[in-house]
């Protein structure tokens, strides 16, 4: 059950304010496509991202099972947003938080975690197969070394997926008034697309669930051809994986498409300039993928996606002229030609 207050009611604490975010129609994009694109405004969660839902769901689950006691410690390896959500929920409930992050993320996320009081441990970026250095494995060992600590393990802990199946998916369906032809979203842990997909499919088996992928991830080839095989690379943060997680396994995925870095950068700047939406790279990639998929559907179709977080966490990259030039992805399009 969604723990959020309904309209006109107060929310109980930080966790009670998570969810019930608006589903925003993107009018200019929709008009250009002749299909309606709807974005779930997850950047309006109190911790600023869709990962607030997973953080609350994971901590709620630990508490229900008696694994997290008053004054306890939550440990997680994260690209940033899950760590931020866990830290803020932890602060509200009296838990210490230890966050392990790779050193290749936007500086704003490290700064926020330190400001929020997390014990932040930044490690060298390394592939998942490197069990000594990869942030996921480091977090697992850190959790094991702290008496009474729990490891959130957002990739394999299906409380992540369950949170989206119980809240995000039903919210989208209700806000869309059940009139939806497709849901398009990227996967980081797989929790959002799997949970939302399961909820939507249970309500309407005809809604297509489509995976949006950056280059460098292996799930596109897995969905399309049944093999885990990555191609290319991407600067997208927090999305794209090269393994099948417990959250992603058995997700009702019908199709997949890929979006290159230049396209999602162009979309991020177009959304800011034309729709007034200041979003991060994963949200921009989701919208670009939703628009491309919508073009394959009949005129008048309705497609929903996730606006994962806001652009403020990426000002030093996605919205910084020097970084854009260094990575050869400066936005140039004045219209939607990049789609």
Quick rundown:
With 339 residues, the protein is α/β, with parallel strands linked by helices. 39% of the residues lie in helices and 15% in strands. It has twelve helices and ten strands.
Care to describe what's here?
The structure is a single chain. It contains twelve helices and ten strands. The chain has helices at 13-16, 27-33, 51-64, 81-93, 107-116, 135-145, 159-175, 191-203, 219-225, 261-275, 281-294, 321-326, and strands at residues 23-25, 36-41, 73-77, 96-102, 119-123, 150-151, 182-186, 208-214, 255-259, 302-307. 39% of the residues lie in helices and 15% in strands. The mean pLDDT is 95. α3 (51-64) crosses α4 (81-93) and α4 runs parallel beside α5. With 339 residues, the chain is α/β, with parallel strands linked by helices. The longest helix has 17 residues, at 159-175.
Strand element count: 10
Strand-residue proportion: 15-25%
Q: How many DSSP H or I helices?
A: 12
**Strand count, sense and closure of the main sheet?**
6 strands, mixed
Structural class: alpha/beta
Proportion of helical residues: 25-40%
Give the overall pLDDT as a whole number.
Answer: 95
Helices and strands in order, then pairings?
Layout: H1 13-16, E1 23-25, H2 27-33, E2 36-41, H3 51-64, E3 73-77, H4 81-93, E4 96-102, H5 107-116, E5 119-123, H6 135-145, E6 150-151, H7 159-175, E7 182-186, H8 191-203, E8 208-214, H9 219-225, E9 255-259, H10 261-275, H11 281-294, E10 302-307, H12 321-326
Parallel strand pairs: 2-10, 3-4, 3-6, 4-5, 7-8, 7-10, 8-9
Antiparallel strand pairs: 1-2
Helix pairs in contact: 3-4, 3-7, 4-5, 7-8, 10-11
């Amino acid at each position: 059950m969604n723990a959020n207050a309904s309209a006109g009611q107060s929310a109980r604490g930080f966790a009670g304010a998570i969810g019930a975010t608006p589903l925003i129609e993107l009018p200019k994009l929709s008009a250009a496509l002749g299909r309606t694109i709807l974005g779930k405004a997850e950047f309006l969660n109190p911790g600023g991202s869709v990962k607030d839902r997973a953080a609350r769901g994971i901590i709620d689950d630990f508490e229900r099972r008696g694994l997290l006691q008053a004054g306890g410690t939550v440990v997680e390896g994260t690209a940033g947003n899950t760590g931020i959500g866990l830290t803020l929920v932890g602060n509200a409930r009296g838990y210490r938080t230890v966050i392990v992050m790779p050193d290749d993320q936007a500086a704003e996320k490290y700064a926020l975690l330190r400001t929020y009081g997390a014990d932040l441990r930044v490690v060298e970026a390394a592939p998942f197969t490197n069990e000594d250095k990869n942030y996921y494995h480091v977090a697992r060992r850190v959790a094991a070394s702290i008496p009474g600590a729990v490891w959130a393990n957002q990739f394999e802990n299906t409380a992540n997926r369950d949170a989206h199946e119980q809240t995000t998916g039903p919210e989208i369906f209700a806000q869309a008034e059940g009139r939806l032809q497709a849901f398009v979203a990227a996967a980081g842990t797989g929790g959002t697309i799997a949970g939302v997909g399961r909820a939507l499919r249970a309500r309407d088996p005809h809604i297509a669930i489509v995976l949006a992928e950056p280059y460098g991830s292996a799930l596109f080839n897995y969905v399309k051809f049944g093999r885990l095989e990555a191609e290319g690379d991407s600067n997208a943060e927090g999305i794209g994986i090269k393994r099948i997680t417990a959250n992603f396994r058995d997700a009702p995925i019908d199709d997949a498409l890929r979006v290159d870095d230049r396209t999602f950068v162009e979309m991020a700047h177009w959304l800011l300039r034309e729709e007034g939406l200041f979003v991060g790279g994963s949200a921009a990639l989701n919208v670009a993928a939703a628009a491309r998929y919508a073009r394959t559907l009949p005129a008048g179709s309705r497609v929903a996606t996730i606006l994962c977080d806001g652009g403020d966490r990426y000002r030093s990259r996605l919205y910084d002229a020097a970084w854009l030039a260094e990575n050869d992805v400066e936005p140039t399009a004045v219209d939607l030609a990049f789609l």
